[in-house]
User: Fold these one by one.
Assistant:
Number 1:
Amino acid sequence: MSGLAGQLAIMHETLGSLALAAGDAAHAQPRFGTGVGAKFDVPRLFGLIPFIPLLACALCGLCAAMKVKTKLPAAITVGCLLASFGLTIGLYAQVHANPGDFAIIHAFEWINFQWGQSEAQSLTANFSFYADSLTALWMLFVTGLATLIALYASEYMSHDVGQGYCRFFMAFSLFVFSMACLVMGDNLALLFLGWEGVGLCSYLLIGYFYKKPSAVAAAKKAFVVNRIGDLGLSLGVMLAFVQFGSLEYAEIFRKAEPFLALARDGQWQDIPWTVQLIPILLTIGAFGKSAQLPLYVWLPDAMEGPTPVSALIHAATMVTAGVYLVARMFPLFLVSEHALTIVAWGGALTALLAATIGMAQFDIKRIMAYSTVSQLGYMFCGLGVMGVMGGPAHVFTHAFFKAMLFLACGAVMHGFAGQLDLRKLSGLGKMPGWRIVTVAMFVGCINLAGVPFITAGFYSKDTILGDAFANPAMVPIGWILLITAGLTAYYTFRVFFRVFVGPAYYEPGDELHAHDDHSHDHAHANKDHGHDSHGHGHSAWQPHPPGWAINTVLILLTILSFAAIVTVFKADGWLYRMVTNSSAGAGIAADHHHKFFGFDAHAAMKVVSGIVAIAGIAVAFVLHYSGRTSAATSKADSLVPMLGPIPRWAQNKWYVDEFYHFLFVRPLWLLSVVFAAIDKVLVDGLVNVFGWVPKALAKTARPLQNGVLHDYALRMAGGVALLLLIIVLMVNRGDRTSAAASIPPTDNSIGTLPAAPAAVDPIAVSLDPIRAKAQEAVR
Amino acid sequence: MNWMLLLLLLPLAGAALVAFMPEKSARQVATLVTLLCCVPFLAMVGQFDWARSGVDQFQTTAVWFEPLGLSFRLAADSITMLLVGLTVLLGPICVVASYTAISERQKTYYAWLLVLQTAMTGVFLARDMVLFYVFFEFTLVPMFVLISLYGSTNRKYAAVKFFLYTFTGSILTLAGLAYVALEAARANGFWSFDFEALKTAARGMTFDQQKWVFIALMVGFAVKVPVFPFHTWLPLAHTEAPTAGSVVLAGVLLKLGTYGIFRFALQFTPVAAYEYAPALAVLGVVGIIYAGLICWVQSDIKKLVAYSSVSHLGFCVIGLFALNGVGLSGSVMYMINHGLSTGALFLLIGMIYERYHTREFKKLGGLASQMPVWSTFMVFFAMASVGLPGLNGFISEFMCLLGTFQAGGTTWTEFGMIPGRFGDASLLPGATFGNLGPWFAAFAAVGMVVTAIYILYMVGKIVWGEFKAPGHSAHAHNHAKGHGHDNHHGAAHADHAHGPLPRDLSGREIAVLVPLAVACLWLGLYPSPVLRTLEEPVAMVVTQVRADVLRNAQAALPADPQTADAHTPALLQQAATITEPGRR
């Protein structure tokens, strides 16, 4: 181990100096402005990228209506997503050929109207797509990973063929459509459409096993917590519209230009507070969707959904929407004095908190969920400390290895009847058929832990750490992230050392019994599946290793995780160009060169974070691998009592859920009950008090309610006639007496009207015949 | 051929026909007539000059009672067209949805339903104040009959309360309108109840007069909408009404209130509407949150949806009182969208009630496993109700909020909500003329979260989870006690004369829901054509309101500078910076 570390250290020296040189080259030519170049044209064909998944959704819906009992929906989805991915590559080629510029692809009108001639009197938000390198970057991994994960899901969900299979792939395709709208939309309203659309799909997919109360509760929680974020986002969108007169990015960026110049000179007082408020409101939305403090609580619960969903939506793509929003709107974040600081601190605290919770969990999927929350925190820090590349780069690399980690966990869950407890699984690598899963898990773990030089995760995380330490205002954040890096390495390898190596042991999960939870009616149909356990005794149960689809996807993702190194290896590599050639490139103006104990921060971090990661893994090795003889216990257990109640608190997620429940949910519920009571007693009671006269009248008039139509009609007509008569009489009296008393005593309601002016002569003349008739009628 | 007159009278003729036909063919006739109504409507759509959508078209006038200037005056602008379209769409849906629910006294039922359609169409088409009022009040009668004869347990009380409450409110409205007519007669020297004539006269009134007229108008319309705190009749009426009654009530009858506000309160008394906009908006916002939270603790599904109407229409009201283009258009869209999505929710709940004879959350659950088609529709319309972008609800909700956000913001300083530099609304370059502001939008937007809470609570309880229904599965032990709801009161209930309903939706029920779903999707994804038709009428209202408010403010300024409103200079400045809107 030490030999390896020594070699790595030498490697680091050379690579570090390389990176330093490259970094300096980039620093030498800062670009100012919003980072938005000229507009170029692309074929309208690329506007189909979001709509092909929508077509898949419609076709899967058709399958559901036709009660298709094959894997057809999966085939449709994979095919459509692949087509979408192909088009995305085409779009990337177009964007690549026009670095720094953007294209707008108009699909059709959505909200577009004008009620006046001036610019402020129109509202335009079309189904138009904004294509620049940031869009392309996101779409590449969204559509690419979606295709792979759909393929994986075709096998993973095979229990449900003929039941929820169509529903699953419908929601899956709809998710890709929504995500594409979110990422590609050329205006904030379309972004919001995608934003809520992915929220809906997340809701539907978390609650996929809808008979489980926990799944239903988790789905609801995810939607509602996200809605709180969306509240902030929608207010931000509105404020942006009122401030800049448009919802379209191009226009907003153009109008933000003067503020950007002020911000660069530090003249914050000259930038209106309303402008500075916009990014802060957007941050609320971003923190909701990307599960950051204080709105992160929904994501761990979201693991109730099927694992492919966790991999795609709750690890790789949807949860990065918040990061995308910040990166896309980066010019606006730069014109706010405090917005990026909020982003950075929110991210840093979330990263640390989630890591501490992750350390104490036993459910491996939950651990991965908390690690996602934690890594998302890193991404926000990357943007918040005004480093440009770190955030999006970490999104990109994280998407691959985290999706892979989840899919590996999913394979375990699938094979061991839902077992996810790391105390009940051990030494999977030694069992037949689990080699690929183990390798994939290992590659995912080293990426997540940030093993130096050989993993993409190391480079992207390192960029964020370097950026944090380079910014003099953000050094505390750097330290928090560094500590978190150590914790991450520990809990990641805790999973690996417990589950995949060591003595071979397993206990099947509770889906042995609960499996038919979602196949109530078709319990017998399940017997057709060879891998199903119904009718077998507990002792005869065998884990079933993953099949070709799962293995293929895992192999591809392993390769991609390594391949991602190419994109982040150099500080001004492919990813750097992808990010800086877009609106997020505005941040380059704010490069910092704070030193880390006298060394260049980026170079120093290459060593320090590497050491921290190795140290974390080493601790995990000692505590959870060396000398472990059973699945249930390890050396770490003996340390737990020394830490007092802290491990228990961490295991209980620091009681944040309980705290929220006590502080928000309960009072709101009580308030609702009080409102309901007020409504019944006070509001309605008052009405009843006012209504006692008519009610009494109604009682006496009850015999009149005989249900005979013409009676009602007659009385109705009579009523109208009476009212007309009252008007006439009123006019009459007003004419006869003075102007002040134009009120017939029969109807006090009219008495609240102001007195009519005295000049009534013309009416009196014209009314004479009526008055005569009316008086006649009265007599 | 006067299609408009045909559209108005066809349902009435149908009602007469139903009355003379045998009991068994009543529903066929009603279906045929309501479907036939589409013909004149589509003909109107074809003939309507959409380039002049703000102008009253198809003007039809027949002198009714000359000495009083009463005339039978009908016309349509684009807003009328939209709302009539909604009425025509819901007509056949209500009839077809009642096939199995109504098995006794069918003739009476369908005849009144058809009469109701004429009354509703008439309200929107009328251009004579008395005619409007006659139609407006006449909607109460069929509704009263539908509730009191075909409703649930407490139907008599609900019907009487519905009738008396709204009727009392509208008497005040009538008083206000009568006063305006009186003013017009004084000014002109002859009687006329024509909208345009009344509007001219009303706009010429002093602020003091306008104030009282506005209040009188608003009392009636606020009860009808209903605006908090005048809403208590609505949950009761909804819960007791038969399904079709609820659909019409939510779909069209509530819109009479918002339509009235748009047509009269805003256009007749613009200065008062401007001045009292904050007060009304506060009621709207309170209604959104208050009624939304009440939804959350309901035990009856239908009551939840009923309260959600109160909450939703709060958005509609603040949109109206934003008094700018986005807000008003959003509000008109809201009238349509709420009719579609809430109407559909009532239909869905009715379908459940027909099957399980209960609407209680306690007794129902997990219907997704038994009724996948129903559940799909339920989730779809629930999401439309939540305001999910891509479906209709979002467009209108977003626009109402955006309009409110934009609308001036003079109240910031007036109410002293936020001191110092945070109070200066003129910092917002995109702010339009208006008397609300970001704070109203911010508080109203909390409704987004509340809506999500109660709608997902509803969906989570009845769609997801383990299957549970009275008389089904092992969970039916409560059933043995017999549930109070099963006192059908004879007529109120289906006796399954037409055969038992299938477990999931029948083809007929799907056919009822599909048009609504299509409309929701269409208005959610491609509302532009509809929004375009609103441009002109909305621009006209905005222009009128601004002109009047400005004139009023200018008149007040030199007369007595010391007592002039504190915010008048700011208002003048604000109005001056905004260019005169006009047609494109």
Number 2:
Amino acid sequence: MNGLIRQLSDIVNNYGLPQDFVVQASFYVLAGLACVFAFGVVAMRNIFHCAVSLALCLFCIAGVYLFLNAEFLAVVQVIIYVGAIVTLFLFAIMLTANIKDRSIRQANSQALISAVVTAAILSFFIYIIMGNPWKIPASGAAAPAGPGLNDIGRALMSSYALPFEFISLILLAALVGAIVIGKVKK
Amino acid sequence: MIPQSHFLVLGAALFAIGLYGALTRRTAIGILMSIELILNAANINLITFNKFLGGPDGLGQVFALFVMAIAAASAVIGLVLVIAVYRNMKTIFTENMNIMKW
């Protein structure tokens, strides 16, 4: 249990609600909302609404990160995904698609078989996950604190310096490539 | 204490929804949004295993950061390609983008 969630549940505790119940309930509500919005991304007809639904879904996933001792990643998720990538999607939609037209079909003719195959894959995953005896932390033992911002920064600059540099190269290549491809040829 | 399997099921559900979207969407932008969902499912799994199995220095969270950077780069390139194709062919539907097919 990390700091932010702990503080939140302490506040709730003052009002007489059981702490574990509130933490668990908020996780399941966030997870359910994330799935609902994710389904909106793939199922809604208006592509603009899909992008807004994607933003809400990513926001809920950032909330889920808080339950995993990853406060830094939650903030990064909101900044990069909701702030940058979804905005990029919205601009691309407004530059290309005719968003007013609700009559165009959004799914191709393989929708039914895709749904069947995807449901089969999902049930297989759930069967595997639920059947596996995961290591249960001893109840009562304090949950190990996740890596803080210090640890992540130190790891990026020491153990994982090479992947970090590769990521910078990839981002530079994406930047240059986007300018070259998107340039209007005279 | 929320068990590890529930986080993994959430990741699997997001992956399945994203896979369905990538298979069925007709517009390239819709496919790109579904791929973002799949990458987020991978991120949830990385961070979950980092928390429950424990890494020495947060390996899972560091790689989740890398996945986010890759997702940003792929979204940029994909959307620029979509805009370039739209400028040349006046279509956003993937079944019409077939000039490289013989």
Number 3:
Amino acid sequence: MPPDVTWYTKLWNIIKPLLFGGGTKIDLSHAKNVIVINNPQCSGPITVSQSGDIVTLNVAAFPNRGAELAPVFREALNDPDGFILEESAFSRIQSIQSHEDSAETKEEIDFFRQILPPADVTILRACLYLKKIHDENIHHVEVARLKSQISRLHGKRGTNMANLCTAGYFKSWIRPLYEEFSRIEGDKTDALKKFQKVYHTIVEELPWTVFAAQTMSEYELEKQIAYKLDKIKSYGTDFLNIHALSKSNVSKVRSVIPHIEEQFPNIRTSVREEGASIIVRLRINPDPKDA
Amino acid sequence: MKPTLTFHVSAKKFVLDVFEKTVDQEKYIVEKDNSEQRVLTAKGEEIRLGDFAGIRHGSGIFVKSDITSLVAASDFIRR
């Protein structure tokens, strides 16, 4: 066989004789995806979808349990862009790519790539994808699963970034914060240095937000809100936003707020509810003309 | 047309076998000829069978199934 024969041509040559004994002509040139399965319950080694674009290889039904396929698969990965991926991981990657190909997401990622530490850019991209799933408002279990992966892998910083991103703070607060530093400082390096210091505090400490979590008791939630209200002036802001998603978290926030209002008589409370989510804004010492 | 190559979760061990890898007692993926040597992701992390999502370019770059790893891998997978 000439050396420039592709791995998939070699694969077709291996499998063709096994397709109906090789007597039937099947055009494999339209195949877009080769799926490898291992199903001893299924006797056929090869299935080709009606449209010819999916070829399923059941290694359990191959004469040598698929050993003859191994060199071809190894060769497939010699391509610089070669890969073999578990089906759901591949679908997820395609979904991520399609999301990031949209002009709005692309612009957002390109912007943050210039101002965030490189490790945070990958976390942010994962968080933006999480936000997309979150905003579709249909895959609640998936949202919880993705968020827990980000938290498990990136700790408190990851959890905070996921919460900030799904609540829209990267776009509505963190980006304008950099733009403001950039406007004031003039010099980009100085602006970036100052921004990153504040940004670090934001993602590590969430100075102006509290996210009610399932694992948090009412007491813990109240304690966290009171702690942040005490410190809020030192962060240079005068408000604290309390976010809750899901019925139980919303009800936790509802029962805690009256206690907070007792402890901090100088706060003004405003509430925004949407579906099973609530945002309570507590503003300290509001300007009398705004009251 | 170059087809994409994917596998069902049932073929995980077959794929590892193709690339001469196996799994140690703690379920980490290791070299078949040296069970002391655990394989690594592009970030240098060891990888358990349960987190294995695939391999890209050559037989050395293992991909984990969590969302951040897939975001990072998406840069190397053709669109």
Number 4:
Amino acid sequence: MKTDDLLLMAYVDGELAPDECREVEEHIRASAEAAETVALLRASRLDYKRAFATQKLPPVPDSLTQKIEAMARAHSNKSAAQGANDSSIPTPSVAPTAPVRSPPVRSRLRSVPTWLAAACVAGAFCGGLFLRLGPLLNTGAPGSGSAAMASAGNLSPWVAAAVGYQQLYTRDTLAYVEDNPQVSSKTVEDIRRDDGLALRIPDLRSAGLTFKTVQRLHFNNKPLVQIVYLPEKGPPIALCVMKNVNPDQAVAAQVVGTMHVVTWRQAELSYALIGKTEGVDLDALGKRISNREVDQLFSNATSVSMALAG
Amino acid sequence: MNGADLPGMLPDMLPRLWAFALRISGDRHDAEDLVQRACVRALERAHQLQPDTDPLSWMFSIVHSTWINELRARSVRKRSSMEWDDDFLENVADPVDKGPETQLMHSQIISAVERLPEAQRVVMLLVAVEGLSYQEAAEVLEIPIGTVMSRLSRARQAVGALFGTHDPKPKVSVTRKDSIA
């Protein structure tokens, strides 16, 4: 592009000083090419803004509006929660003006961050509208979502919901989760104190599972805890826990779509161990957890760093 | 204005992000996915939003870079504007209190911009339609400001070639915030 053209554009748009204008006008008189460019640029002075404002576009989809509102809300809450713990949470150093680079969108939900998944599902959990997530699941994992929902009839509703939630999880999801023992420890404390759940976070390293995060969710306005572990390979595995005063129930396994679900009830808590079947024997693992054959993490604040050190 | 305010601002920005995403992607499903992805990334990086950066143009930049990465991932060229689905990107102007001539003019303007080569079209959308400054457009597209200006000049000459014969008189100026003087 010739500098000339940029100067001519500025001239046409009335952005030059009077003496610059005079110079350009002399140039136009001397050059037919410049005069032609000026004519084209003048003809391009159109009301683009108004023209495009009248363009008939489809309205913003309700589903998108709801998702954005949910994630904005979730993020506001998250910011507020983090703000309250600023003294204990190390903030990562990030170049403030670094250009934003997004990973490819190969799969729509492949790398949905945890808090977004939580935001989407929290809405469904709270409103008892989990089935609305059906299309979302189908989008993320063609074929598997509908299969899961279709065969989930014999599961407790909360387990079906948790299975759906777990399908949103990939290893990429956990890439956004910071390993922060203080935060996890605080979450566990809050669950024990505020939600009244006598929660144990099983230490599953002996089964090759690394503790990643613990989250407070809700199902029908009741606390639901999701503990996420990462196996050496394959998608994450979750242990979900809800209060349930019914009698204890033995460990039982079932397959829901591509997910393996192991459930049991013990000491007024319902458990669901959820994951893909690759690599980890969830049935055996469920039995070990229910038999308290594994240690627990975050049994008290001082053990945190030690428990995670290995 | 900083990143902490971003969650509250996103719902209000949504219609413009949606329109921009639709216009650059030319596909309703891509646009929905794109806006969602961009909002996720923006909220994760809200702390990077500088007080002197316009949140909307910052969001445009995220929408745009997300789309570019998507195209790279798909390893396909952007479909040409001629292949767009007219069912949802109609160039017919909304007939609110406008005479047929104005409507025709508006739809011709939209068509002219849509026919531009992709790089020029995005610059026109940002500068002439969204009202971004050259500098803001340069930041959105991560290209030098001179490149923005040269693309804009080429784009305008191409559009001008379509309108020059029957509309010699300038209608309304291209508005933007800065000056190159």
